[in-house]
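Can't paste images in this forum, so I'm doing it all in text. The chain is below; anyone willing to post the predicted structure tokens underneath?
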Amino acid sequence: MKYLLLLLLLSGASHCYAQYPGPVYDSLRTSMGNHYHIEDSIRITSPQGITLTATLVRRTGLTEKVPGILFYTIYTSPERSLREAKSMADHGYVGIVANARGKYLGRDSIRLYETECEDANTVIDWISRQPWCNGAVAMYGGSYSGFAQWAATKKLHPSLKTIVPYVAAIPGQGLPMENNVFLTANYQWAFYVTNNRFTDNIVNNDNDRWQRMRGRWYNSGAAFNRIDSIDGTPSPWLQQWLLHPGYDAYWQAMVPWQQDFAHINIPVLTFEGYYDDGQVSGLEYLYSHYRYNPSAEHYLIIGPYDHFGTQTGGTALLRGYKVDSAALINTREITFQWLDYILKGAPKPAILKDKINFEVMGANSWRHVPAIAKMHDSIWTFHLDPHREKKFHRLTAGKTMKGSIKQIINLADKTQSSSYYPFPLEQTSFPGNGGLAFVSKPLQRNMIISGAFAGNLYVKCNKKDFDFHVALYEVKADGSYFQLSYFLARASYITDRTTRKLLTPGGIAHLPFDRSRMISKLLPAGSSIMIVVDADRNPFAQVNYGTGKDVSTETVADAGVPLVLEWLSESTIAIPVLMP
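Text version of the structure:
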């Protein structure tokens, strides 16, 4: 059940809008009366001859030139487009909702992720040349729309003055693969957005079909590149993506990469959530922006939200956890405050007291610091200690005696699977299935885990590769568990996501990592910190059988002898800590 929510979150299931103009659309348009100028079938032609379609709304009687605000989407809905553009007009702008290539009235082929750099800039250029535009353009929006904003900055148009991405995706770094591990949780998404010129909600919402497909594939031991055969419908997009298991030039062409960030000199406001499944993507943009442009004007708002909650400002209950009242914000309201600040010289949004703005879960308060590194004031380093204390191994501060913990996993045994996904957030029974758990001594005083945990793992492995995850928990004084963060990766790509470097069977592999999920939560005295490590194997991702071949072609016949992992005590976990 915990993975069912992952499927819903990653599928875009909230985008269930009316597909064609109908009574609701007509009613909305009628209610707008003569107060708005509406164009709902604009065609914009690119220099390459591609036609994009858009909806435009501006207030009637508007005589001065104003900025144009662009919402770029692949989730085409005439009704939503009209509402979105109207909202921009109500804030004193001209609102434009542009549809991705091939959507709505477009007749070109739909190209997932591949052409947004070109296409978004085509729309920006068109907006900038309209007689009502003062030459300034801004963008906002979440998920795919967030990705499209960053795609536009790869070849930054001089008229683009700011972007406001929420939970922005990075193709190839969060979906459809995370740290080089292809996922199945959002498998149906490609059908959802390409089956027609709008969205195929019936296919997207057929949860029984996708759950059945994942189960049948995993239990059969078939190759990952045969999963569409098991479903019965070919998935050309899946097959295209599987040709690129490394973060190669195919993926790099879609969004800014490395030095591309150096020239992005416009202000950015990023919204993210601690429990956004794509957080690694949204924050990778921020990390890279500051890495290659240290003077970047890039702000972050992050709190206890999931993928969709971030886009609205949170919900009172998150996966069973009662969210602090202070954490509940209005994302849209802050977005337009930011746009007014950048484009009209209005005051900066009150919540932006510094560059990095984060809510501390359990403290019911916001903190504001100038950099990610300032989210914590110290790093606590723990070793994976082989010694057991009751049912768990120790998570020991400081050095420990040399040793190792052996883990033997029969990858051919499909009755066993691993677990790391945070749903629900609080559990009364051990959430790590067969993973190895390491627990610290109880805290002597209150402390805040604040930032992204990291690690240096040393593992002896009998195969050429394996996938693994590391999960971080709070163990409360009453024995219950609260999941804080996790990390998922393929060992052979751990030091370079672009190039695979196979392990030497029987040798010691060094697996450093730091791209875990960011969190900030108050832990009271009496709580302990728990780390769970395990080889990844479940129906929600590829199964890496360790032969060194393309993982998508491996089958259960490649499982061979059981996977043997020896986790060495030299392995360390670094926890970022902020004292209350």
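The CA atoms of residues 84 and 97 lie 7 Å apart. Residues 207-220 form the longest helix (14 residues).
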